UniProtKB/TrEMBL annotation, chain A:
Keywords: Membrane, Transmembrane, Transmembrane helix. The lineage of its organism: Bacteria, Candidatus Woeseibacteriota. This is SCP domain-containing protein. Coiled coil: none annotated. Residues 68-178 form the SCP domain.
Amino acid sequence: MDFVNLVLHFVVPRPSNNHKAGFLHSPVIMIIIFSLFVYQLILTSVPSVLPRVLGFASSIPVEEVIKLTNQKRVEAGLTPLNTNPILQEAAQAKAADMLAHDYWAHVSPGGVTPWDFFRNFGYTYRFAGENLARDFANPSSVVDAWMASQSHKENIMSPKYEEIGVAVVEGDLEGVDTTLVVQFFGSRGAKVAQAEEVVRERGVKPEPQIEGQYLASAPILSPLDSTKGLSAAVLGLLLGVFLVDEIIVYRKKIFRVSGRGVAHMSFLGMILLVVLIIKSGQIL
Amino acid sequence: MRKFAKHMPHYFSLFGLLLAGILGFAIFSYDRIFQIYTAVAVASAYIVWGAFHHALHKDLYLEVIIEYVVISSLGLIIVLSLILRV
């Protein structure tokens, strides 16, 4: 079988493939599924072999995050928050702590809470809150994601808060080059809320602060973008082959036992839309 | 095409199912758990839709079911690999 015949075998229904394009046979699709699975395994193992090759390119100025946050508050008729340098430093320390101890959570594996960072920097709060984000490309996508989540939105829109501190720190988290955004809210006062009095004293030693809050990183490969690219290519190929297959089967009036091509194209088309919709970034 | 027109009521239910899936992903774009449940639900519902559709048209065979399972598995692994990479 020469090359042209081999290609035709995989993309066109003909006697050699029992009148169904080779790519659409279940065993071939199972091989594609297995290949995608292996690709994900390779992506997962890359950080241990080649650290900092994978990552998310981002450009998130701190001032822009604060500006957008205040914009949302003003639009809702609330007073804008004042930037507090102590909260900025505390947020910076929290971000550095997550990178140093390789965790992505409000409370560290050692039990250090966000409130410990407030207290370690001498910020006596009446009310305090924390929003976290990672792997976003720009400040508006970060704030939009927080606004889309009820609990994060409540922090941004809370009238209890008067001050804000934001840190954007880039570093290696679980082997992947990551950009963390830490947003601290607070209002000062001598009276400490009951729930916050039980915060344990852990003697947190803040990590050395990372200079520069405007970061622009350019890792070699984004795991999400590469997965999206490969997925879109596979789906595009299968959708094209399904279309050609359906047209030929319809025109030649071939009868065969098979699923509905239109249904498969609709389902895979929906998956392709999801591939395009999914955005990078996580919030906590 | 005549066959497609004849099956239109079935396809309306399929399109409704797929549209609900897309809307779920678009609206809850940062809720990973919800997205995972949505992906599994849509993939499973697609297999069920295929089985009912072919059963009603009296052309339900094992290889047809396998085809729906394989296609929905492909969709599911693509979506899950993206959700877990976000």
